[in-house]
Amino acid sequence: MNEATITQEQFALLMERLDRIEGHLAEQRRRADELEELKRDLIPIGNQMVKIAIDELAEIGSEFKAEDLFYLLKRLLRDTHLLLAALDQLEAAMGLSEEINRLMRPMFNTAVEELDRLEREGYFTFAREGWGIVERIVTEFNEEDVRALADNIVFILNTIRNMTQPEIMALANQSVDAIREEPPIDEKASLFTLLREMRDPKV
Q1: Between the N and C ends of the chain, which has fewer C-beta atoms within 10 Å?
Q2: Tens digits of per-residue pLDDT, 60-102?
Q3: Quick one: 198 exposed, middle or buried, by C-beta within 10 A (0-12, 13-18, 19+)?
């Protein structure tokens, strides 16, 4: 009975190991298939790149020399300090750009807030309506009207200035008050009534 129990445990352990081995083999096969598929995909690309490189080198032909490549490398090595200085200037420019952005951000926020205030207080609406007035003037008046206005603008402004003098404004107000205080005419009054009123010294 004890030997049968041990045999079953060993069998279960053996099956577990076989399952793990089978899993590893399946993983290895999957990776091998992926590598094979990648190789199949890369071979045409590599061939195309080689063909392009050959065509490009063929266009260069005899103009390219190995001495030119070595000369370029020597120039790069000799002018390393210039390249480093250029990189330093580039870094400084980038730092300056960041500093400008940092300084401009509050100004931009202030401008946005100011524009929002102007919008809420109606300045933009007033400007749109004013532009509508300008468009209407342009539509209603032609070039000759504008030229005539330009010729008489001084006279018009002088007239407006004279009309806004205190004594003129006072006289205008008195005239308006007199018109308002004048009693309405009775349309039903007869001719004799009008004659009697005309003979009255108080009238």
Answers
A1: N
A2: 666 667 677 778 788 878 888 888 888 888 888 888 888 888 8
A3: exposed
- Return d(Cα 96, Cα 104) in angstroms, integer: 12
Say if CB 66 and CB 72 are below 8 A apart. Answer: no
Say how many residues make up the chain. Answer: 203
In angstroms, the Cα distances linking 23 to 16, 28, 29, 70 are 11, 9, 10, 55
Tokens linked to 58: 């063929």
Token representation of residue 84: 């480093």
pLDDT digits (tens, 9 = 90+) for 153-184: 888 888 888 888 888 777 877 777 777 665 55
Block residue for tokens 């009207």:
145
Query: Domain spans of the chain?
Result: 7-59, 82-140, 142-203
Two tokens at 1?
A: 């009975």
Contact 57, 64 (CB under 8 A): yes
